[in-house]
Amino acid sequence: MLRFGFDIGGTNIAAGIIDENNRLIAKDSVKFPRGEGTDAVVAACAEVYQAILDRTGAAPDAIAGVGVAVPGSVNPEAGLVIDAHNLGFHHTPLASLLEAALHKPVCLVNDADAATLAEHRIGALKGTRTAMMITIGTGIGGGLIVNGMLFGGGRGNGTEPGHMVLCNGGRHCTCGIDGCAETYCSATRLAKDGAAFGMSSAKDVIEAAKQGNPDALELFRAYIDDFGSYIASIVNLLDPERIAIGGGVSGAGSFLLDPLRADVARKCFFETCPEIVVASAGNDAGIIGAGLIIS
Ligand code: BGC
After folding, report:
1. What are the residue ranges in the chain where pLDDT is below 50?
2. Do 1 and 18 meet the contact criterion of CB atoms below 8 Å apart?
3. What does the pLDDT read at residue 156?
4. Which partner from 19, 142, 157, 208 sits 20 to 30 angstroms from 151, CA to CA?
């Protein structure tokens, strides 16, 4: 049977069909209708779902179910998005709303958990028993592989590594707490810091740093210092075999990873560090992972 995956982000809703071999065989996206309410989000999902089915000619009966990745904490049993601050969803019964619109069983998953599942099944974490994935985008997400399985949290709440407090009383986070790792290690941090120097995105800062712009280099150095502290703390807690870094900023490749590895090596407790690699399942990892949760 085919499976359908959604990756709902604050900018776009990406979606696609995953075949029996875990391959994404068709995909599309629509803009996230920011500020227009839950019904508009459900309508946008229904629209892209139908568009993909129409385009591929896939019969609705061929779709076993729909996995939905969201950037926040979820209760899959209750079908609730508990808190997805970057979407404005709080205790939203998204699964039942989508089931009514799509006429398919719907299962929710955290977006970074979905990406981690995809990396573990087909990407950079394949074969690992203890590993971590960190996604760097608007926020910081992460998923944990323990004993070769995605760790769902001791009480079923999953993990929220982006909201580990990196700096007491530090930068204000969208979750309402000050000092979360997300406010120091996300693309949003680079974009905010860059704005003071006329650079409007994380990509701009990284490109300018690559060109040797002294302001951008200083911003990037400070970013690596914070990100390195964060990753070293994760290493000290878990002693993972491998850490995969995904999300937009990971596109900087060795420009990011070389100084990051050196910083983590300096700060980590152990004599040797685990491998730190760029995620390889690509931008579609969220859609694929969402599809993979449908059994
Ligand atoms: C959310 C996470 C999510 C991450 C990436 C964070 O702000 O709390 O649940 O995985 O952003 O989207």
Report:
1. none
2. no
3. 84
4. 19
Nearest CA to ligand 1 atom 6: 139
Query: What is the domain range of residue 247?
Result: 126-279
What is d(CA 22, CA 115) in angstroms, rounded to the nearest whole number? 13
- How far, in Å, CA of 118 to CA of 61, rounded? 25
Q: Does residue 121 belong to any structural domain of this protein?
A: no
Q: Would you state the pLDDT for residue 53?
A: 97
Would 273 be classed as within a structural domain?
A: yes
Pocket of ligand 1 (CB under 6 A): 71-72, 86, 110-112, 135, 137, 139-141, 160, 162-163, 182
Is 120 part of a structural domain of the chain? no
Instruction: Decide the pairing of beta strands 2-8 and 63-70.
Output: parallel
Name the residue with the closest Cα to ligand 1, atom 12: 71
Q: What is the pLDDT of residue 73?
A: 95
pTM of the model: 0.95
Q: pLDDT by residue (tens digit) across 40-80?
A: 999 999 999 999 999 999 999 999 999 999 999 999 999 99
CA nearest to 289, candidates 86, 111, 134: 111
Tokens of 55: 């385009």
Q: How far is the CA of 58 from the centre of ligand 1 (A)?
A: 32
Closest alpha carbon to 264 in 185, 148, 199? 185
Residue nearest to atom 7 of ligand 1 (CA): 139
Distance CA 44, CA 35 (A): 13
CA distances to 24, 99, 102 from 53, rounded to whole Å, are 13, 16, 11
What distance in Å separates the CA atoms of residue 45 and residue 185, rounded to the nearest whole number? 30
